Amino acid sequence: MAFVLSSRSLDITVEAETDAEVDVSGLAIPFGDRYLLRPGQYEVSATAPGYHPLTTEVTVGDADNQRTTLVLAPLPGLLSIDSSPAGAELLLDGESIGKTPLLELPVEAGVHQLEITSPRYFAQSREIEITGRNQAQQLSFALLPAWASYSIDSVPQGADILIDGEVVGQTPATVELLQGERQLQLSRAAYTTWDTALTVTAGMDDTLGTIELEPAAGILSLNSDPAGANVTMDGEFQGQTPLQLTIEPGLKHRIALSKPGYDRRSETIELAAAQTEERTVVLKARKGDVKFRISPASAELRVNGRAMGKGSRTLELPAIAHRIEVSLPGYASQIQTVTPRPGLLQQVSITLQTENEARLARNKPELETALGQTLVLFNPQESGMADFSMGASRREAGRRANEVMHPVSLRRMFYLQTTEVTNAQFRAYQADHKSGQIEGNSLNRNDQPAVALSWQQAASFCNWLSKREGLPAFYRENQGVITGFNPSSTGYRLPTEAEWAWAARTFNGSLLKFPWGSAFPPPATAENYADNTSAYVTGRILNGYKDGHVVSAPVGSYQPNHRGLYDMGGNVAEWVHDVYTIPSADGTTVTDPLGAQTGDNYVIRGASWSHSRIGELRLSYRDYGAGGRDDVGFRVARYADE
Protein backbone atom coordinates (compact mmCIF):
# COMPACT_ATOMS: atom_id res chain seq x y z
CA MET A 1 0.00 0.00 0.00
CA ALA A 2 2.92 2.35 0.73
CA PHE A 3 4.34 1.67 -2.79
CA VAL A 4 1.03 2.39 -4.44
CA LEU A 5 0.55 5.60 -2.54
CA SER A 6 4.07 6.88 -3.35
CA SER A 7 4.30 5.74 -7.04
CA ARG A 8 3.61 7.75 -10.20
CA SER A 9 2.06 6.75 -13.54
CA LEU A 10 4.43 6.61 -16.59
CA ASP A 11 2.92 6.12 -20.08
CA ILE A 12 5.55 4.55 -22.43
CA THR A 13 4.80 4.83 -26.19
CA VAL A 14 6.98 3.00 -28.77
CA GLU A 15 6.99 4.28 -32.40
CA ALA A 16 7.37 1.20 -34.64
CA GLU A 17 5.44 -0.54 -37.42
CA THR A 18 5.57 -3.87 -35.54
CA ASP A 19 4.61 -4.85 -32.02
CA ALA A 20 7.22 -3.82 -29.50
CA GLU A 21 8.23 -5.24 -26.13
CA VAL A 22 9.17 -2.88 -23.30
CA ASP A 23 11.27 -3.67 -20.21
CA VAL A 24 11.72 -1.27 -17.26
CA SER A 25 14.45 -1.83 -14.67
CA GLY A 26 13.67 -1.93 -10.92
CA LEU A 27 10.26 -2.13 -9.32
CA ALA A 28 7.67 -1.29 -11.98
CA ILE A 29 4.06 -2.50 -12.05
CA PRO A 30 2.63 -2.55 -15.61
CA PHE A 31 -0.97 -1.52 -16.38
CA GLY A 32 -1.25 -1.84 -20.19
CA ASP A 33 1.06 0.82 -21.67
CA ARG A 34 1.39 2.38 -18.22
CA TYR A 35 3.75 1.60 -15.42
CA LEU A 36 3.60 2.49 -11.72
CA LEU A 37 7.01 3.64 -10.54
CA ARG A 38 8.33 5.57 -7.65
CA PRO A 39 10.18 8.82 -8.54
CA GLY A 40 13.77 8.22 -9.68
CA GLN A 41 16.02 7.05 -12.60
CA TYR A 42 15.04 3.94 -14.62
CA GLU A 43 16.57 2.09 -17.58
CA VAL A 44 13.98 1.42 -20.27
CA SER A 45 14.57 -1.04 -23.16
CA ALA A 46 12.41 -1.59 -26.27
CA THR A 47 12.60 -4.21 -28.99
CA ALA A 48 10.50 -4.83 -32.12
CA PRO A 49 10.90 -7.08 -35.17
CA GLY A 50 12.72 -5.21 -37.99
CA TYR A 51 14.14 -2.52 -35.70
CA HIS A 52 17.35 -1.91 -33.81
CA PRO A 53 16.94 -2.46 -30.02
CA LEU A 54 16.81 0.73 -27.95
CA THR A 55 17.91 1.23 -24.32
CA THR A 56 17.61 4.61 -22.65
CA GLU A 57 17.27 6.23 -19.22
CA VAL A 58 13.99 7.79 -18.08
CA THR A 59 13.54 10.10 -15.08
CA VAL A 60 10.25 9.78 -13.16
CA GLY A 61 9.32 12.99 -11.44
CA ASP A 62 6.67 13.99 -8.85
CA ALA A 63 3.81 14.52 -11.31
CA ASP A 64 1.00 11.98 -11.06
CA ASN A 65 0.86 11.23 -14.79
CA GLN A 66 3.94 11.29 -16.98
CA ARG A 67 4.66 10.25 -20.63
CA THR A 68 7.75 9.23 -22.69
CA THR A 69 8.06 8.15 -26.35
CA LEU A 70 10.65 5.69 -27.65
CA VAL A 71 11.50 5.96 -31.39
CA LEU A 72 13.05 2.76 -32.80
CA ALA A 73 15.43 2.95 -35.80
CA PRO A 74 14.52 0.51 -38.57
CA LEU A 75 17.02 -2.06 -39.75
CA PRO A 76 18.38 -1.63 -43.37
CA GLY A 77 16.30 -2.92 -46.24
CA LEU A 78 17.62 -5.63 -48.58
CA LEU A 79 17.89 -4.18 -52.12
CA SER A 80 18.21 -6.41 -55.21
CA ILE A 81 18.71 -4.91 -58.70
CA ASP A 82 18.89 -6.51 -62.13
CA SER A 83 19.25 -4.90 -65.55
CA SER A 84 19.13 -5.62 -69.22
CA PRO A 85 21.91 -5.86 -70.22
CA ALA A 86 23.54 -7.25 -67.10
CA GLY A 87 26.82 -5.85 -65.80
CA ALA A 88 25.62 -2.25 -65.53
CA GLU A 89 27.46 -0.02 -63.06
CA LEU A 90 25.39 1.08 -60.03
CA LEU A 91 25.88 4.27 -58.02
CA LEU A 92 23.85 4.96 -54.90
CA ASP A 93 23.94 8.56 -53.70
CA GLY A 94 27.01 9.07 -55.94
CA GLU A 95 29.00 6.06 -54.60
CA SER A 96 29.58 2.82 -56.48
CA ILE A 97 27.76 -0.21 -55.00
CA GLY A 98 28.68 -2.78 -57.67
CA LYS A 99 27.29 -4.11 -60.92
CA THR A 100 24.05 -5.84 -61.88
CA PRO A 101 22.74 -8.32 -60.90
CA LEU A 102 22.90 -7.11 -57.31
CA LEU A 103 21.41 -9.33 -54.56
CA GLU A 104 20.10 -8.23 -51.15
CA LEU A 105 22.42 -5.28 -50.55
CA PRO A 106 21.70 -3.78 -47.10
CA VAL A 107 20.55 -0.17 -47.60
CA GLU A 108 19.47 2.22 -44.89
CA ALA A 109 15.81 3.12 -44.89
CA GLY A 110 14.90 6.40 -46.54
CA VAL A 111 15.05 8.19 -49.91
CA HIS A 112 18.14 7.56 -52.10
CA GLN A 113 19.35 8.54 -55.57
CA LEU A 114 20.21 5.54 -57.78
CA GLU A 115 22.10 5.85 -61.10
CA ILE A 116 22.75 2.98 -63.50
CA THR A 117 25.19 3.22 -66.40
CA SER A 118 26.55 0.86 -69.01
CA PRO A 119 28.87 1.52 -71.98
CA ARG A 120 26.99 2.20 -75.23
CA TYR A 121 23.65 2.62 -73.35
CA PHE A 122 21.84 5.67 -72.06
CA ALA A 123 22.26 6.12 -68.32
CA GLN A 124 19.20 6.10 -66.06
CA SER A 125 18.73 7.88 -62.78
CA ARG A 126 15.90 7.24 -60.29
CA GLU A 127 14.91 8.29 -56.80
CA ILE A 128 14.09 5.23 -54.68
CA GLU A 129 12.63 4.84 -51.19
CA ILE A 130 13.96 2.00 -49.07
CA THR A 131 11.44 0.62 -46.57
CA GLY A 132 14.08 -1.00 -44.33
CA ARG A 133 13.21 -3.38 -41.46
CA ASN A 134 15.02 -6.24 -43.29
CA GLN A 135 12.37 -6.16 -45.98
CA ALA A 136 13.51 -7.23 -49.47
CA GLN A 137 12.98 -4.85 -52.43
CA GLN A 138 13.58 -5.76 -56.10
CA LEU A 139 14.28 -3.24 -58.91
CA SER A 140 14.67 -3.95 -62.64
CA PHE A 141 16.04 -1.68 -65.38
CA ALA A 142 15.94 -2.00 -69.15
CA LEU A 143 18.66 0.27 -70.58
CA LEU A 144 18.12 1.88 -73.96
CA PRO A 145 20.88 1.53 -76.62
CA ALA A 146 22.82 4.76 -77.37
CA TRP A 147 23.88 3.73 -80.88
CA ALA A 148 22.70 3.31 -84.42
CA SER A 149 23.78 0.68 -86.96
CA TYR A 150 25.51 1.84 -90.15
CA SER A 151 26.13 -0.39 -93.14
CA ILE A 152 29.35 0.42 -95.04
CA ASP A 153 30.99 -1.06 -98.16
CA SER A 154 33.89 0.03 -100.36
CA VAL A 155 35.54 -0.59 -103.73
CA PRO A 156 37.91 -2.30 -103.32
CA GLN A 157 36.66 -4.14 -100.25
CA GLY A 158 38.79 -4.96 -97.23
CA ALA A 159 39.33 -1.35 -96.16
CA ASP A 160 39.78 -0.75 -92.44
CA ILE A 161 36.83 1.05 -90.85
CA LEU A 162 37.96 3.61 -88.28
CA ILE A 163 35.58 5.38 -85.93
CA ASP A 164 37.18 8.38 -84.22
CA GLY A 165 40.60 6.95 -85.08
CA GLU A 166 39.97 3.37 -83.83
CA VAL A 167 39.63 0.34 -86.14
CA VAL A 168 36.24 -1.37 -85.67
CA GLY A 169 36.16 -3.68 -88.69
CA GLN A 170 36.67 -4.02 -92.45
CA THR A 171 34.37 -3.38 -95.38
CA PRO A 172 31.78 -4.66 -96.02
CA ALA A 173 30.38 -4.42 -92.49
CA THR A 174 27.60 -3.12 -90.31
CA VAL A 175 28.99 -1.20 -87.36
CA GLU A 176 27.38 0.30 -84.33
CA LEU A 177 28.10 4.01 -83.90
CA LEU A 178 27.52 5.80 -80.62
CA GLN A 179 25.19 8.78 -80.68
CA GLY A 180 26.88 12.14 -81.35
CA GLU A 181 29.46 13.59 -83.72
CA ARG A 182 31.65 10.82 -85.16
CA GLN A 183 34.54 10.81 -87.63
CA LEU A 184 34.40 7.87 -90.04
CA GLN A 185 37.44 6.83 -92.11
CA LEU A 186 38.12 4.09 -94.62
CA SER A 187 41.79 3.17 -94.98
CA ARG A 188 43.41 0.68 -97.35
CA ALA A 189 47.01 0.29 -98.46
CA ALA A 190 47.82 2.07 -101.77
CA TYR A 191 44.60 4.11 -101.57
CA THR A 192 43.82 7.56 -100.27
CA THR A 193 42.06 7.55 -96.91
CA TRP A 194 38.38 8.46 -97.23
CA ASP A 195 36.76 10.25 -94.34
CA THR A 196 33.53 11.97 -93.43
CA ALA A 197 31.82 13.44 -90.37
CA LEU A 198 28.60 11.81 -89.15
CA THR A 199 25.92 13.02 -86.77
CA VAL A 200 24.59 9.81 -85.24
CA THR A 201 21.16 9.59 -83.57
CA ALA A 202 20.55 6.54 -81.41
CA GLY A 203 18.14 4.07 -82.96
CA MET A 204 18.23 5.70 -86.41
CA ASP A 205 20.12 3.15 -88.53
CA ASP A 206 21.57 4.16 -91.89
CA THR A 207 23.32 2.75 -94.97
CA LEU A 208 26.28 4.64 -96.44
CA GLY A 209 26.36 2.55 -99.60
CA THR A 210 29.55 1.70 -101.46
CA ILE A 211 32.49 4.09 -101.18
CA GLU A 212 34.90 4.12 -104.14
CA LEU A 213 38.46 4.61 -102.86
CA GLU A 214 40.96 6.59 -104.93
CA PRO A 215 44.48 5.30 -105.55
CA ALA A 216 47.01 6.98 -103.24
CA ALA A 217 49.53 9.42 -104.68
CA GLY A 218 53.19 8.51 -104.94
CA ILE A 219 55.74 10.36 -102.81
CA LEU A 220 58.99 11.66 -104.28
CA SER A 221 61.65 12.85 -101.84
CA LEU A 222 63.71 15.19 -103.98
CA ASN A 223 67.16 16.49 -103.03
CA SER A 224 69.75 18.47 -104.95
CA ASP A 225 73.47 19.11 -104.74
CA PRO A 226 73.72 21.92 -103.81
CA ALA A 227 70.48 22.25 -101.86
CA GLY A 228 68.09 25.17 -102.27
CA ALA A 229 67.23 24.58 -105.94
CA ASN A 230 63.87 25.82 -107.23
CA VAL A 231 61.59 22.95 -108.29
CA THR A 232 58.75 22.99 -110.82
CA MET A 233 56.48 20.06 -111.72
CA ASP A 234 54.64 20.23 -115.02
CA GLY A 235 55.55 23.92 -115.15
CA GLU A 236 54.23 24.87 -111.68
CA PHE A 237 56.56 25.99 -108.88
CA GLN A 238 56.61 23.52 -105.95
CA GLY A 239 59.28 24.88 -103.60
CA GLN A 240 63.00 24.44 -102.94
CA THR A 241 65.03 21.31 -102.28
CA PRO A 242 65.03 19.30 -100.12
CA LEU A 243 61.38 18.80 -100.99
CA GLN A 244 58.71 16.08 -100.81
CA LEU A 245 56.44 15.96 -103.85
CA THR A 246 53.04 14.29 -104.17
CA ILE A 247 52.91 12.47 -107.52
CA GLU A 248 49.61 11.51 -109.17
CA PRO A 249 50.00 7.78 -109.89
CA GLY A 250 50.10 6.27 -113.36
CA LEU A 251 51.06 9.52 -115.14
CA LYS A 252 54.35 10.96 -116.36
CA HIS A 253 55.40 14.26 -114.81
CA ARG A 254 58.13 16.69 -115.81
CA ILE A 255 60.37 17.77 -112.90
CA ALA A 256 62.75 20.74 -113.43
CA LEU A 257 65.39 22.09 -111.01
CA SER A 258 67.10 25.48 -111.27
CA LYS A 259 69.44 27.51 -109.10
CA PRO A 260 71.28 30.76 -109.86
CA GLY A 261 74.82 29.95 -110.98
CA TYR A 262 73.98 26.38 -112.04
CA ASP A 263 72.71 24.71 -115.23
CA ARG A 264 69.02 23.80 -115.27
CA ARG A 265 68.15 20.07 -114.95
CA SER A 266 64.94 18.35 -116.06
CA GLU A 267 63.74 14.77 -115.49
CA THR A 268 60.59 12.71 -116.08
CA ILE A 269 59.05 10.86 -113.12
CA GLU A 270 56.28 8.25 -112.99
CA LEU A 271 55.23 6.51 -109.77
CA ALA A 272 52.71 3.79 -109.00
CA ALA A 273 50.01 4.30 -106.38
CA ALA A 274 51.52 4.79 -102.91
CA GLN A 275 55.03 4.27 -104.30
CA THR A 276 57.81 6.20 -102.54
CA GLU A 277 61.09 7.15 -104.15
CA GLU A 278 64.10 9.30 -103.25
CA ARG A 279 66.22 11.12 -105.81
CA THR A 280 69.21 13.45 -105.61
CA VAL A 281 69.93 15.68 -108.62
CA VAL A 282 73.46 17.03 -109.01
CA LEU A 283 73.53 20.52 -110.53
CA LYS A 284 76.45 21.62 -112.63
CA ALA A 285 77.92 24.96 -111.55
CA ARG A 286 78.41 27.81 -114.02
CA LYS A 287 81.60 29.72 -113.17
CA GLY A 288 83.23 33.05 -113.85
CA ASP A 289 86.58 34.69 -113.08
CA VAL A 290 86.89 37.52 -110.56
CA LYS A 291 90.09 39.56 -110.22
CA PHE A 292 90.51 41.00 -106.73
CA ARG A 293 92.74 44.07 -106.21
CA ILE A 294 93.35 44.27 -102.46
CA SER A 295 95.22 46.91 -100.46
CA PRO A 296 97.13 46.55 -98.17
CA ALA A 297 98.70 43.46 -99.73
CA SER A 298 98.77 41.66 -96.35
CA ALA A 299 94.97 41.78 -95.99
CA GLU A 300 93.20 38.41 -95.97
CA LEU A 301 90.49 37.53 -98.50
CA ARG A 302 87.59 35.30 -97.51
CA VAL A 303 84.82 34.05 -99.80
CA ASN A 304 81.69 32.86 -98.02
CA GLY A 305 83.74 32.57 -94.83
CA ARG A 306 86.46 30.43 -96.44
CA ALA A 307 90.03 31.81 -96.43
CA MET A 308 91.34 32.26 -100.01
CA GLY A 309 94.75 33.84 -99.27
CA LYS A 310 96.22 37.32 -98.82
CA GLY A 311 96.46 40.23 -101.22
CA SER A 312 95.36 40.52 -104.85
CA ARG A 313 94.44 37.40 -106.82
CA THR A 314 92.10 35.99 -109.48
CA LEU A 315 89.53 33.33 -108.49
CA GLU A 316 87.18 31.15 -110.51
CA LEU A 317 83.86 31.13 -108.65
CA PRO A 318 80.35 29.75 -109.29
CA ALA A 319 78.08 32.32 -110.94
CA ILE A 320 76.08 33.02 -107.78
CA ALA A 321 76.25 35.77 -105.17
CA HIS A 322 79.27 35.38 -102.87
CA ARG A 323 80.00 37.12 -99.59
CA ILE A 324 83.44 38.73 -99.86
CA GLU A 325 85.26 39.80 -96.70
CA VAL A 326 88.68 41.49 -96.56
CA SER A 327 90.27 41.97 -93.13
CA LEU A 328 93.53 42.98 -91.49
CA PRO A 329 94.27 43.68 -87.80
CA GLY A 330 94.17 47.44 -87.10
CA TYR A 331 91.92 48.05 -90.12
CA ALA A 332 88.16 48.06 -90.53
CA SER A 333 87.00 44.97 -92.40
CA GLN A 334 85.05 45.40 -95.62
CA ILE A 335 82.23 43.10 -96.68
CA GLN A 336 80.50 43.10 -100.05
CA THR A 337 78.73 40.77 -102.45
CA VAL A 338 80.06 39.66 -105.84
CA THR A 339 78.24 37.65 -108.53
CA PRO A 340 80.64 36.25 -111.21
CA ARG A 341 79.52 36.11 -114.85
CA PRO A 342 80.62 33.18 -117.04
CA GLY A 343 82.86 34.34 -119.88
CA LEU A 344 83.38 37.81 -118.41
CA LEU A 345 86.30 38.78 -116.18
CA GLN A 346 85.16 40.94 -113.26
CA GLN A 347 87.43 43.23 -111.26
CA VAL A 348 86.84 44.08 -107.61
CA SER A 349 89.00 46.68 -105.85
CA ILE A 350 89.02 46.84 -102.05
CA THR A 351 91.15 49.26 -100.05
CA LEU A 352 90.93 48.92 -96.29
CA GLN A 353 90.76 51.95 -94.02
CA THR A 354 92.26 52.20 -90.58
CA GLU A 355 89.67 51.82 -87.84
CA ASN A 356 89.79 55.55 -87.14
CA GLU A 357 89.34 56.39 -90.84
CA ALA A 358 86.43 53.97 -91.07
CA ARG A 359 84.83 55.38 -87.95
CA LEU A 360 84.94 58.88 -89.33
CA ALA A 361 83.60 57.69 -92.67
CA ARG A 362 80.59 55.99 -91.01
CA ASN A 363 79.35 59.26 -89.53
CA LYS A 364 77.33 61.16 -92.09
CA PRO A 365 77.69 64.97 -92.15
CA GLU A 366 73.95 65.25 -91.61
CA LEU A 367 71.22 63.03 -90.18
CA GLU A 368 67.47 63.25 -90.47
CA THR A 369 65.31 61.86 -87.68
CA ALA A 370 62.06 59.96 -88.10
CA LEU A 371 60.28 63.30 -87.46
CA GLY A 372 62.20 65.13 -90.20
CA GLN A 373 64.59 66.99 -87.86
CA THR A 374 68.02 67.77 -89.32
CA LEU A 375 71.10 67.15 -87.19
CA VAL A 376 74.59 68.35 -88.20
CA LEU A 377 77.79 66.49 -87.30
CA PHE A 378 80.46 68.41 -85.38
CA ASN A 379 84.05 67.31 -84.72
CA PRO A 380 85.50 69.86 -82.27
CA GLN A 381 89.03 68.50 -82.78
CA GLU A 382 88.96 69.54 -86.43
CA SER A 383 87.85 73.07 -85.51
CA GLY A 384 91.05 74.03 -83.74
CA MET A 385 89.00 74.97 -80.68
CA ALA A 386 88.34 71.63 -79.01
CA ASP A 387 89.85 73.27 -75.91
CA PHE A 388 88.09 76.48 -74.89
CA SER A 389 86.82 78.42 -71.89
CA MET A 390 83.25 78.52 -70.68
CA GLY A 391 81.83 81.36 -68.62
CA ALA A 392 82.72 85.06 -68.69
CA SER A 393 85.25 87.45 -67.22
CA ARG A 394 84.26 89.25 -64.05
CA ARG A 395 84.80 92.52 -65.88
CA GLU A 396 82.23 91.70 -68.55
CA ALA A 397 79.08 93.84 -68.36
CA GLY A 398 76.04 91.83 -67.30
CA ARG A 399 78.12 88.91 -66.06
CA ARG A 400 76.41 86.82 -63.32
CA ALA A 401 78.02 84.95 -60.44
CA ASN A 402 77.24 81.52 -61.96
CA GLU A 403 79.31 82.26 -65.10
CA VAL A 404 82.61 81.19 -63.57
CA MET A 405 85.42 80.93 -66.13
CA HIS A 406 86.63 77.33 -66.46
CA PRO A 407 88.43 75.32 -69.17
CA VAL A 408 86.77 72.41 -70.99
CA SER A 409 87.85 70.06 -73.77
CA LEU A 410 85.60 68.34 -76.31
CA ARG A 411 86.98 65.16 -77.88
CA ARG A 412 83.85 63.29 -78.90
CA MET A 413 82.09 64.04 -82.17
CA PHE A 414 78.40 64.86 -81.79
CA TYR A 415 75.30 65.75 -83.78
CA LEU A 416 73.19 68.82 -82.97
CA GLN A 417 69.72 69.66 -84.27
CA THR A 418 69.77 72.76 -86.48
CA THR A 419 66.49 74.09 -85.01
CA GLU A 420 64.55 73.89 -81.80
CA VAL A 421 61.97 71.07 -81.47
CA THR A 422 58.61 72.29 -82.78
CA ASN A 423 55.15 71.79 -81.35
CA ALA A 424 54.31 69.43 -84.23
CA GLN A 425 57.39 67.30 -83.54
CA PHE A 426 56.78 67.16 -79.79
CA ARG A 427 53.11 66.28 -80.31
CA ALA A 428 54.19 63.18 -82.24
CA TYR A 429 55.40 62.02 -78.80
CA GLN A 430 52.75 63.67 -76.59
CA ALA A 431 49.64 64.29 -78.67
CA ASP A 432 47.84 66.44 -76.11
CA HIS A 433 50.72 68.86 -75.49
CA LYS A 434 49.81 72.54 -75.57
CA SER A 435 52.39 75.33 -75.42
CA GLY A 436 49.65 77.84 -74.57
CA GLN A 437 49.27 81.54 -75.42
CA ILE A 438 50.06 84.93 -73.89
CA GLU A 439 47.74 87.93 -74.13
CA GLY A 440 46.08 86.35 -77.19
CA ASN A 441 49.43 85.55 -78.85
CA SER A 442 49.68 81.83 -79.59
CA LEU A 443 52.71 79.76 -78.64
CA ASN A 444 50.99 76.61 -79.90
CA ARG A 445 51.33 76.73 -83.70
CA ASN A 446 52.90 73.67 -85.30
CA ASP A 447 56.06 75.46 -86.48
CA GLN A 448 56.68 77.34 -83.22
CA PRO A 449 59.13 75.83 -80.70
CA ALA A 450 57.55 73.53 -78.10
CA VAL A 451 57.52 75.22 -74.67
CA ALA A 452 55.75 74.80 -71.31
CA LEU A 453 57.51 71.46 -70.83
CA SER A 454 59.83 70.30 -68.07
CA TRP A 455 63.38 69.03 -68.38
CA GLN A 456 62.01 65.54 -67.64
CA GLN A 457 59.60 65.80 -70.59
CA ALA A 458 62.38 66.94 -72.92
CA ALA A 459 64.65 64.05 -71.85
CA SER A 460 61.79 61.53 -72.16
CA PHE A 461 61.12 62.81 -75.69
CA CYS A 462 64.75 61.97 -76.54
CA ASN A 463 64.33 58.40 -75.24
CA TRP A 464 61.08 58.01 -77.19
CA LEU A 465 62.78 59.16 -80.40
CA SER A 466 65.68 56.74 -79.79
CA LYS A 467 63.26 53.83 -79.35
CA ARG A 468 61.39 54.80 -82.50
CA GLU A 469 64.62 54.61 -84.51
CA GLY A 470 66.02 51.51 -82.80
CA LEU A 471 68.79 53.38 -80.97
CA PRO A 472 69.88 52.65 -77.39
CA ALA A 473 68.23 54.99 -74.88
CA PHE A 474 70.60 57.60 -73.49
CA TYR A 475 68.57 58.32 -70.36
CA ARG A 476 67.76 55.71 -67.75
CA GLU A 477 64.04 55.81 -67.09
CA ASN A 478 61.97 54.18 -64.34
CA GLN A 479 58.16 54.37 -64.62
CA GLY A 480 58.39 57.52 -66.72
CA VAL A 481 60.95 59.30 -64.49
CA ILE A 482 64.52 59.97 -65.69
CA THR A 483 66.90 58.53 -63.08
CA GLY A 484 70.29 58.95 -64.80
CA PHE A 485 72.02 58.40 -68.12
CA ASN A 486 74.36 56.09 -70.04
CA PRO A 487 77.34 58.13 -71.28
CA SER A 488 78.32 55.50 -73.85
CA SER A 489 74.92 55.51 -75.58
CA THR A 490 74.52 57.00 -79.05
CA GLY A 491 70.80 57.56 -78.57
CA TYR A 492 69.16 60.98 -78.69
CA ARG A 493 69.71 63.33 -75.74
CA LEU A 494 69.83 67.01 -74.85
CA PRO A 495 73.03 68.87 -75.80
CA THR A 496 75.57 69.09 -73.01
CA GLU A 497 76.18 72.62 -71.75
CA ALA A 498 79.74 72.43 -73.13
CA GLU A 499 78.50 71.34 -76.58
CA TRP A 500 75.92 74.13 -76.61
CA ALA A 501 78.54 76.72 -75.60
CA TRP A 502 81.05 75.41 -78.16
CA ALA A 503 78.47 75.49 -80.98
CA ALA A 504 77.23 78.98 -80.01
CA ARG A 505 80.46 80.77 -79.05
CA THR A 506 83.63 79.34 -80.62
CA PHE A 507 84.45 81.18 -83.84
CA ASN A 508 87.76 81.66 -85.68
CA GLY A 509 89.86 81.05 -82.58
CA SER A 510 87.86 83.35 -80.29
CA LEU A 511 84.66 83.35 -78.23
CA LEU A 512 81.58 85.30 -79.33
CA LYS A 513 79.99 87.53 -76.73
CA PHE A 514 76.65 87.90 -78.54
CA PRO A 515 75.24 85.82 -81.44
CA TRP A 516 75.98 88.75 -83.79
CA GLY A 517 79.40 89.69 -82.43
CA SER A 518 80.72 91.88 -79.61
CA ALA A 519 78.86 95.21 -79.96
CA PHE A 520 75.57 96.12 -78.32
CA PRO A 521 72.72 96.67 -79.25
CA PRO A 522 72.03 93.96 -81.87
CA PRO A 523 71.42 94.78 -85.54
CA ALA A 524 67.86 94.55 -86.82
CA THR A 525 66.33 91.06 -86.85
CA ALA A 526 69.48 89.42 -85.51
CA GLU A 527 67.38 87.18 -83.25
CA ASN A 528 63.92 87.07 -81.66
CA TYR A 529 64.01 89.18 -78.47
CA ALA A 530 61.60 91.38 -76.49
CA ASP A 531 61.25 94.10 -79.12
CA ASN A 532 59.02 97.19 -79.27
CA THR A 533 55.91 95.09 -80.01
CA SER A 534 56.38 92.94 -76.91
CA ALA A 535 55.96 95.68 -74.30
CA TYR A 536 52.41 94.71 -73.28
CA VAL A 537 53.54 91.07 -72.89
CA THR A 538 56.96 91.30 -71.26
CA GLY A 539 56.82 94.71 -69.59
CA ARG A 540 60.43 95.39 -70.60
CA ILE A 541 61.84 95.66 -74.09
CA LEU A 542 64.95 96.28 -76.15
CA ASN A 543 64.26 99.89 -77.15
CA GLY A 544 64.20 100.56 -80.85
CA TYR A 545 64.58 96.88 -81.80
CA LYS A 546 62.18 95.18 -84.21
CA ASP A 547 62.19 91.45 -85.02
CA GLY A 548 58.64 91.01 -86.36
CA HIS A 549 57.28 88.73 -83.61
CA VAL A 550 55.62 89.51 -80.29
CA VAL A 551 56.28 86.04 -78.83
CA SER A 552 58.09 83.03 -80.29
CA ALA A 553 58.61 82.84 -84.04
CA PRO A 554 58.48 79.75 -86.26
CA VAL A 555 61.81 77.95 -85.87
CA GLY A 556 64.46 78.98 -88.39
CA SER A 557 62.89 82.39 -89.05
CA TYR A 558 66.24 84.20 -88.65
CA GLN A 559 69.68 83.70 -90.11
CA PRO A 560 71.63 80.67 -88.78
CA ASN A 561 74.83 81.22 -86.83
CA HIS A 562 78.31 80.49 -88.17
CA ARG A 563 77.76 76.74 -87.63
CA GLY A 564 74.45 76.58 -89.49
CA LEU A 565 72.36 76.44 -86.31
CA TYR A 566 69.18 78.49 -85.92
CA ASP A 567 67.94 80.39 -82.83
CA MET A 568 70.95 79.55 -80.65
CA GLY A 569 70.78 82.97 -79.04
CA GLY A 570 67.08 83.79 -79.19
CA ASN A 571 63.48 82.77 -79.90
CA VAL A 572 63.29 80.44 -76.86
CA ALA A 573 65.89 79.58 -74.24
CA GLU A 574 66.87 75.90 -74.24
CA TRP A 575 67.13 73.04 -71.79
CA VAL A 576 70.55 71.39 -71.89
CA HIS A 577 71.59 68.06 -70.43
CA ASP A 578 73.57 69.12 -67.35
CA VAL A 579 72.42 69.26 -63.74
CA TYR A 580 72.77 72.88 -62.61
CA THR A 581 75.89 73.67 -60.58
CA ILE A 582 78.23 76.65 -60.25
CA PRO A 583 81.53 75.65 -61.90
CA SER A 584 84.76 75.46 -59.95
CA ALA A 585 87.40 78.10 -60.61
CA ASP A 586 90.35 75.79 -59.86
CA GLY A 587 91.46 75.76 -63.52
CA THR A 588 91.09 71.97 -63.97
CA THR A 589 90.17 71.03 -67.52
CA VAL A 590 87.21 68.66 -67.82
CA THR A 591 86.92 66.58 -71.01
CA ASP A 592 83.46 66.03 -72.54
CA PRO A 593 81.66 66.99 -69.31
CA LEU A 594 78.21 65.50 -68.71
CA GLY A 595 77.68 66.55 -65.09
CA ALA A 596 75.95 64.63 -62.31
CA GLN A 597 73.58 61.72 -63.00
CA THR A 598 70.64 63.44 -61.28
CA GLY A 599 69.76 66.72 -59.57
CA ASP A 600 66.98 69.08 -58.60
CA ASN A 601 67.57 71.70 -61.30
CA TYR A 602 68.99 71.70 -64.81
CA VAL A 603 70.83 74.29 -66.88
CA ILE A 604 69.01 76.58 -69.33
CA ARG A 605 71.10 78.28 -72.02
CA GLY A 606 70.40 81.11 -74.46
CA ALA A 607 68.10 84.11 -74.53
CA SER A 608 64.42 84.08 -75.55
CA TRP A 609 61.69 86.28 -77.00
CA SER A 610 61.02 87.60 -73.47
CA HIS A 611 64.63 88.80 -72.86
CA SER A 612 66.01 92.26 -73.57
CA ARG A 613 68.78 93.08 -71.08
CA ILE A 614 72.41 93.00 -72.05
CA GLY A 615 73.18 90.35 -69.43
CA GLU A 616 70.51 88.01 -70.80
CA LEU A 617 71.48 88.39 -74.47
CA ARG A 618 75.09 87.33 -73.88
CA LEU A 619 75.93 83.78 -75.00
CA SER A 620 77.53 83.02 -71.61
CA TYR A 621 74.22 83.71 -69.80
CA ARG A 622 73.09 80.76 -67.65
CA ASP A 623 69.73 80.08 -66.03
CA TYR A 624 68.28 77.02 -64.36
CA GLY A 625 65.03 75.28 -63.41
CA ALA A 626 63.11 72.00 -63.60
CA GLY A 627 59.53 72.85 -64.54
CA GLY A 628 58.17 74.21 -67.80
CA ARG A 629 58.25 77.88 -68.87
CA ASP A 630 56.60 79.65 -71.76
CA ASP A 631 59.98 80.78 -73.11
CA VAL A 632 62.05 77.58 -72.66
CA GLY A 633 62.23 74.81 -75.28
CA PHE A 634 64.96 72.42 -76.41
CA ARG A 635 66.81 70.86 -79.33
CA VAL A 636 68.13 67.28 -79.55
CA ALA A 637 71.66 65.97 -79.86
CA ARG A 638 73.46 62.62 -79.94
CA TYR A 639 77.00 61.29 -79.95
CA ALA A 640 78.47 60.09 -83.25
CA ASP A 641 79.55 56.47 -83.59
CA GLU A 642 83.06 55.89 -82.36
Automatic annotation (TrEMBL):
Residues 388-638 form the Sulfatase-modifying factor enzyme-like domain. Residues 78-143, 147-203, 218-284, 295-355 form the PEGA domain. It comes from the Bacteria. It holds the Pfam family PEGA. Transmembrane segments: none annotated. PANTHER family: S-LAYER-LIKE PROTEIN. This is PEGA domain-containing protein.
